[in-house]
Design a protein that fits this description.
Blueprint (H helix, E strand, L loop, with lengths): L2 E5 L15 E5 L3 H22 L2 E8 L2 E7 L7 E5 L2
Parallel strand pairs: 3-5
Antiparallel strand pairs: 1-2, 2-4, 3-4
């Protein structure tokens, strides 16, 4: 099972919905789903990261559960990985 939830600032709700997504919450049941899903999530956020002039942070929350987000602490053009404590 794969689920994805888009999170966006309230002010962006009136603008173009797809381009304002800054964070994706993902859950995967298998390793194959995880690899494909994380690749797709990063690809989805690349344009938003370019517009914001920052990078993308992939955070493992627990086994099979991730957040992929545009993050100002990540240098432009880079993708960092983190594990939540």
């Amino acid at each position: 099972m794969t689920t994805a939830t888009l999170e966006r600032p309230l002010a962006a709700a009136a603008a173009d919905e797809a381009s304002d997504a800054r964070s994706l919450d993902l859950q995967f049941a298998t390793a194959e789903e995880m690899h494909e899903g994380l690749d797709n999530a990063v690809a989805t956020l690349i344009e938003t990261a370019k517009d914001a002039a920052c990078g993308i942070l992939v955070t493992r929350l627990r086994p099979g559960r991730f957040t992929v987000a545009v993050d100002a602490s990540v240098p432009f053009g880079e993708t960092y990985e983190a594990i939540a404590a």
